[in-house]
Amino acid sequence: TVILTFCSKLKESFEILNNPDASIKRIYSVSIKVSPNQPEITTGANLNDIELVNSFRDISSFQDDTRNEELYSETHHLVSNNTAYKRIIDSACEKAKLCLYINNDVESDRDYLTSSRLCYTQGKIPYKSELVIPIIPLVRNQETVILLGFLCITCNLKNGFELNDKEKKFMLTLTDCLYNLFSKWQKKQIVPN
What we know:
This protein has four helices and eight strands; from the N terminus they run αβββαβαββββα. It is α+β, with helices and mostly antiparallel strands.
């Protein structure tokens, strides 16, 4: 319940901070996708076959009437089939300081891929903008970095993520905390819920 509460509180925070005008209602969804294999991100490595599993969601996003849950759970969510994951891994390999992905107009992006599209009614994904941050250490001194997964936040409207540098760094710090927490749980063989 700790991680579910985290996802739900992060969703609430985005909605409170990004809905100053009552006439526009931005609805956010927060989920954490993990990589069961915990691959190492290294320069030049082929990471397209890394599979990700949706392990946690905010409480109100569990049930989506437009998503076929059975198909979603059976779908192989590979890095190669998801623009956000691919761009983040490329960025991490280049040791970029702000290693995250923001797309404020998913519908207009002709190059945008998501393996989830087939799981929704008529292939229509329920979000218009997306923020994805890798769950990796914030400080990366070594040549290889273990990828534990991704923190994924979506918004039902365009321009849901107008973040300044300070806000981007805050989000990276959150995923660094998740990395440390998940790493400690794994060492103690605790299964988070």
